[in-house]
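Q: What would this chain look like folded?
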Amino acid sequence: MGRGIWTVMKKELARFFKDKRLCLTTLLLPGLMIYVIYSFMGDALSSNFTVQEEYDYSIEAIRLPQSIQKMSEQLPFSIQDAKIEEQQEIINSVQEQECDLLIVFPQDFDEKMRSYSVSSGVEAPNIEIYYNSANTESSTAYEIVTDFLDQFETSLVNKFDINRGQNNYDLADEQDLAGMTFAMMMPMLIMMFLFSGCMAVAPESIAGEKERGTIATILVTPLKRSELALGKIFSLSIIALLSGLSSTVGVLLSLPKLMGGMEIDAGVYGITEYGLLGIIVLSSVLLLIALISIISAYAKSIKEAQTLIMPLMIVVLMVGVSAMFGTMQENSFLYLIPIYGSVQSMGSIFLFQVNTVNLLITVIFNFIYTALLIVVLTKMFNSERIIFTK
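A: My prediction, written as C-alpha cells:
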C-alpha cells in the first residue's frame, strides 16, 4: 500500500475515533437501538399463514378414508392417495422439501371411528401428519389440515386423535430452519446496515471537507489524487463495516424475540459460510462507499449529499426486499447487477446453496465496479470546477 494512501487512511481514522460523539452515534447506538426496537417488535408481531393460491401443494395421504376424502373437497388443495409401501419415501420427500405434507390414517379408520367411545378406555384412532416447518408451504398446509381435522373431530364428538404421543412429526432439521430464517431476513438487513454505515461517514468526510474548505489544503500537497481517493474509500469502508457489524450483532441478539421465541442457532454455519459472507460484505461495502463518495464529491454540502443519496438508498432497500420474498436466482447474468448480486449471494450462503460461479461473478464484478468508480472519483478530485464549487 502506497505511503500516500496510508497517510490518508490514518488521518481519516484518527479524525473519526477522536470524535467520541461520532463514534457513539455510528458504532454503538445503531446496534443498541436495533436490539431494543426489534425486541419490542418481536413481542407485538404474530405469524399468520395464508394459502398461496398460485402454489401447487403436494399433499399425500396413506389409507385415505372415504369420509375424509369427501369432506376434503372444501380444502384449497387436493389430497393424493398413496400406498403404505411409499410411506418412508414420502417422509424423506417432506424432509427434502419435495413434498409438503404426509397424512397417515390408521387401518380401517372409518370403522374404528364409528365404534370408538370415550368411555371405553381404548385409545382413539390416531392420525399422523408429517410436515416440515422450515418450508413455509408445508407449515401452511399443516395448519390448514389440522384445523380441518379438528373441526371434523369436533362434529364427531372426539372420535380420533392427531399426532398423539411424543413422536417428532416435524421433519425440519436445525440447519434447514436456521437457513430459511436467516436467508429471508439477513441479506436485506446486512445491506441496509452497510448502506447506513456508509451514509453516516462518507458525506461528512468528502462533502463536509468541501463545505468547510479543508479539502483545498489536502489538494495542494504532493499527494496523488488516486491515493486520496483510495485512502478515503479504504478508511471509510473500515468505519462502515464496524457500523454494520454493530447493527448485525443487535439483530442477532434480538432475533429470538423477533421470531416469537423460536430457537435460531447461528452456530449451524461454519468457517466456510462466514468466510464467504465476509468476502461478499467486503466487496459490497467498497462498492457502496465508492458510489456514495462520488455523490458526496459532486454535492456542495453535507445536506445536499444526503438528499442526493436518498434515491440510491431506496434502490438498495428495494433490492434487499427482493431477497425476502423472492427465490434464489440461477441465471448467472443477474449476478452482474450491482447490489442485487450481493443480496442473492448472501441468501444462497445462508441457505447452504452456494453456487461457486455466481459467487465469483458477484465478488469479481463488485471489485471491477469499485475500481471504475475510484477512477471516476479520482477525476472528480482533479476537477477544480467540481471540488471548489460552493
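The longest strand covers residues 126-130.
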